[in-house]
Design brief:
6 strands; 177 residues; alpha/beta; globular; single chain; two-stranded parallel sheet
């Protein structure tokens, strides 16, 4: 069973999905590869993980330093999960290239595969795939649209500060599949 909820953001409606415990998806409306609620899906606006995700999103879009303290359970192949782990470690306000992402994922020659895995990232923003750019620094390949990618990077450039003192930043940790 897939649980879901929606929330409005400055960049459009966001679909949140969960297995009941962990966040399994965060998709912008119109995002490539975004699932749609269907049979077997249950709207559960009351799930604690959705409340925490909404709090995180509100703080993120307000430009406030914050910690990622949500259980994440993205579903994908072992290679995709490795790529998403690397993306999760890209600090706010920084970008890396697809080539660097492939290298960090253990196969420098797998640039296209790393790009494809990035495009299939099911948990946008929390696994910040908008921070991956072309080899020349150009904005390429964002499933949520290049205008959203540009706006997200601009937002982060204006608020790229360290988390509040004492905050715990958890990145790169996913629940076991």
């Amino acid at each position: 069973m897939t649980c879901y909820s929606t929330v409005e953001s400055p960049l459009g409606t966001v679909l949140l999905t969960s297995d009941g415990t962990a966040l399994t998806g965060l998709y912008f409306q119109g995002q490539r590869h975004s699932p749609q609620p269907g049979p077997g899906w249950v709207q559960r606006d009351d799930l604690p993980v959705f409340a925490r995700a909404q709090t995180w999103l509100a703080a993120y879009f307000a430009g406030r330093p914050l910690a990622i303290d949500l259980p994440l359970a993205p579903h994908g192949t072992p290679f995709q999960r490795t790529v998403w782990q690397q993306i999760a470690g890209i600090p706010k306000g920084e970008t890396i290239t697809y080539a660097e992402l492939a290298r960090r994922s253990g196969n420098a020659a797998a640039v296209r595969a790393a790009g494809a895995a990035t495009g299939r990232n099911p948990i946008s923003l929390l696994i910040p795939c908008h921070r991956v750019v072309g080899s020349d620094g150009s904005l390429t390949g964002y499933a949520g649209g290049l205008e959203r990618k540009r706006r997200l990077l601009a937002l982060e450039a204006g608020s790229a500060t360290a988390p509040e003192p004492g905050a715990t930043v958890r990145t790169g940790r996913f629940a076991e599949a």
